[in-house]
Fold this sequence. Notes:
Layout: H1 3-43, H2 49-105, H3 109-114, H4 127-132, E1 137-144, E2 151-153, E3 156-169, E4 174-186, E5 200-208
Antiparallel strand pairs: 1-3, 2-3, 3-4, 4-5
Amino acid sequence: xxxxxxxxxxxxxxxxxxxxxxxxxxxxxxxxxxxxxxxxxxxxxxxxxxxxxxxxxxxxxxxxxxxxxxxxxxxxxxxxxxxxxxxxxxxxxxxxxxxxxxxxxxxxxxxxxxxxxxxxxxxxxxxxxxxxxxxxxxxxxxxxxxxxxxxxxxxxxxxxxxxxxxxxxxxxxxxxxxxxxxxxxxxxxxxxxxxxxxxxxxxxxxxxxx
Length: 210
């Protein structure tokens, strides 16, 4: 074998070795890249559809709960407001009865007469008849019971106030009465006057007990 042949064969072997080495390096590089990508994939959190659905459902429930709480708060506020309004209205009605008997005690019969509806006409007496009815009265005391509820009808409100009354005549005789007054007021409707929206005595059921 000639020297040139030996040299040529060594060159070919070297090229083959280099090719194998290059293939090996490429293969190792690809394997390393694949492993790196695999590790990155493991580290990267995946998107869980079920969790997203649960979050949306829970969020909707929270909104529904808050809405219901708001509605309950509104209802409660309205109930409190109605209760306060009723309490104020009852107190105003009681004040009319107290004013009525205070006026009688001071012989201010005109003011007492005007505590009745329709400028006194609801008493079914003229002012002269009304005032004459107290000519023998020296003093009068009223005890007011628990006011009834405020009822509405045909643009008006009504309330019943129970009372017990003790009167003393000018000759010292004591009389006792028991019963109730029904008071009426016009509701807050357009065209109503301030006086109409105030409580006035509408009717009375008073009986002497002894």
